[in-house]
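User: Hey, my collaborator sent me this sequence without any context and asked if I could get a structure. I don't really work with proteins. Can you help?
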Amino acid sequence: NVPEESVAAEAAILTSGAEVSVSLNPAVKKYFIRLEQIDIDNPVSLMNSIKKHLKNGKLSVNSDLLKALPEIFNSGNRELTVTSCSSSEITDIENGDTTDRNFGIAVDIGTSTIAAEIVNLNTGASAGKAVSLNPQSKHGSDVISRLTFAYKNPGNLEILRGLVVNALNGMIDDLAKRSEEHTSELQSHSFISYAV
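Assistant: No problem. I've predicted the 3D structure and written it out in structure-token form, which is a compact way to encode the shape of the chain:
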């Protein structure tokens, strides 16, 4: 552990940098569809109808979402938003048009800081940023010191992991409150890490 009294000054955290233009092609996309009324003489499953609208017959669906389909279908609402990941899996189906609410979170877990940003996946616009010191630093200011700490006791790796997970959960909750986005609306995440 690094004693608190040995810290000479408050750490300065860089909260902005150069803006870089990138083309958007998120792995997670939302599609608004209007389902036709079911013809009793030609019943088509809801999933087949959705796949037909998305022009992708190879989409898979997880079992939890499959279980929710009857409730969605029986609601009588024929206007749905389908969320697809990498054009291979349907990850969510919502009533109505929620295509404008497609958010992801980007996280950078560095040796000294953790940065997180909620991003609108449709536009690339930031919906909020948060930066904090990496709480693992109390077990060493560099990666080698943290590896040594983790190696000394099998439980220490879990301590290091827990510190980052707790910091991230707090940052994500804070971001969601400040940016009026709900963590349940985060459709995608991307992590970069150099920490132990």
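In plain terms: The radius of gyration is 22 Å. You can pass these tokens on to your collaborator as they are.
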